[in-house]
Amino acid sequence: MKKRKKINKYQRLIRKFLKDPDSIWKNVKLIKREMSIAKKLYVKVNNERFWKEADLPFKLNSLAWLLSEDGVKFLNLEALKLKLNLPSPIKYDINDQKIGKDKRVKKTKQTTLMEFLKDA
């Protein structure tokens, strides 16, 4: 049985954000490029919790997007979300009791469309 190596934080970053991370490991140049970009990203934001909680709504072809202008905006926004400390929401106790009275509606039997439109 083959033992799997434990993946490091850079490989975890590649697996989390890329569309097809398994294809990267087949090409040595791509491995070097993505690993160096991952190292640069960890220099920018050296917080393991940040990278675990960062949620990108789409998958990337390359981590290089995170170094672009849009990527930096995303990183800054995620950092602000991480610092945000909201109070817990207020929970209201809603009873099963009825509040107020039911409105009584007089039912009229409409037989044709013309009668219905005439009453409107």
Q: Outline of this structure?
A:
The protein is 48% helix and 0% strand. It is built from six helices and no strands. The chain has helices at residues 9-17, 21-24, 28-44, 48-53, 69-83, 113-119.
Describe this structure in words.
It is a single chain. This protein is an all-alpha fold. It has a domain at 9-83. It has helices at residues 9-17, 21-24, 28-44, 48-53, 69-83, 113-119. Helix 1 crosses helix 3. The radius of gyration is 29 Å and the shape is elongated. The mean pLDDT is 85.
Total strand segments: 0
- The fraction of residues assigned to DSSP E strands is under 5%
Which spans have pLDDT < 50 for at least 5 consecutive residues?
A: none
Question: Nearest-angstrom radius of gyration?
Answer: 29 Å
Structural class: mainly alpha
DSSP summary: helix tally:
6
Overall pLDDT level: 85
Element order, helices and strands?
Answer: HHHHHH
Gross geometry: elongated
The largest sheet is: none
Helical amount among residues, as a percent range?
Answer: 40-55%
Terminal CA distance reads 79 Å
